[in-house]
Amino acid sequence: MAAVRRGCWPWGSLLGLLGLVSAAAAAWDLTSLRCNFGAFCECDFRPDFQGLECDLAQHLVGQHLARALVVKALKAFVQDPAPTKPLVLSLHGWTGTGKSYVSSLLAHYLFRGGLRSPHVHHFSPVIHFPHPGHLERYKKDLKSWVQGNLTACSRSLFLFDEMDELAPGLIEVLRPFLGPSWVVYGTNYRKAIFIFISNTGGEQINQVVLEAWRSRREREEIRLQELEPVISQAVLDNPNHGFWRSGIMEEHLLDALVPFLPLQRHHVQHCVLNELAQVGLEPRDEVVQAVLDSTTFFPEDEQLFSSNGCKTVASRISFFL
């Protein structure tokens, strides 16, 4: 996943900062004690919406829909003292558009330990479920893992990457955990967050954005209602997607389908400038132009969208410095 960006923190005086650190340490001690009591433990769950919104605004380029949708859904869920079901989001879009970056931000701004928190669980098909012939064992292990970790802490985040590569049938074991039931297998699970990430629907999203551009509509005029149906159909029609015949889509267990739009030339330029700033370098026109010139854009006639989004920007900058 992409590294979390810095630079959004409103620092106060040194004494004030030391006071905050001392208070946080005391709060951590109390929380650690409460963690021994199981399902109602909040553990290192420390949501920082101000930091999240600032980081998204500065570094998530070209994604007005994803930014607004994620923040709105997350705030409503976290601020509800007694949610009736977990928060379940499915992120969709072309490669390099920010899906993994957003998931890393959620871990960073929701949990003290970020992606290293013991209550943030990241699953990758290649790493965790590499052999299709072991599907039944994977299903049993995944169910036990989710159930056990929710028993230890109800405030847990589960990230499932590359849903396009996940063996169909595996994710169906999660269906009982995603719905509006009070208790599953004796586990309190309603405060959990599940994030599913895939490229499925990316081509359909690209087509909607392309048609809007051809019609001279502003990108920000594109609405979620235009994209939800095409994304849903793309998932339902894809036998290689992890949701295939799992019942998750059919039973409407997803709280939101989050679309990530393809990135245009000026978005890639923004990413280059951001990356240069992150490594402490001043903007250099020749580097920016070299990265843009080495980037492939499509469709062939319009040359409108970056084929890799901002995914390879960091490595390309290193090459041209």
UniProtKB/TrEMBL annotation:
Subcellular location: Endoplasmic reticulum lumen
GO molecular function: ATP binding; ATP hydrolysis activity; identical protein binding
Signal sequence coordinates: 1-26
InterPro entries reported in the protein's UniProt record: P-loop_NTPase, TOR1A_C, Torsin, Torsin_1/2
Residue ranges occupied by any Torsin-1A C-terminal domain in the UniProt entry: 266-320
Binding-site residues, ATP: G93, W94, T95, G96, T97, G98, K99, S100
The entry's keywords: ATP-binding, Endoplasmic reticulum, Glycoprotein, Nucleotide-binding, Signal
Main location class: endoplasmic reticulum
Gene Ontology cellular component terms for the protein in this record: endoplasmic reticulum lumen; nuclear envelope
Recorded family membership: Belongs to the ClpA/ClpB family. Torsin subfamily.
Protein name: Torsin
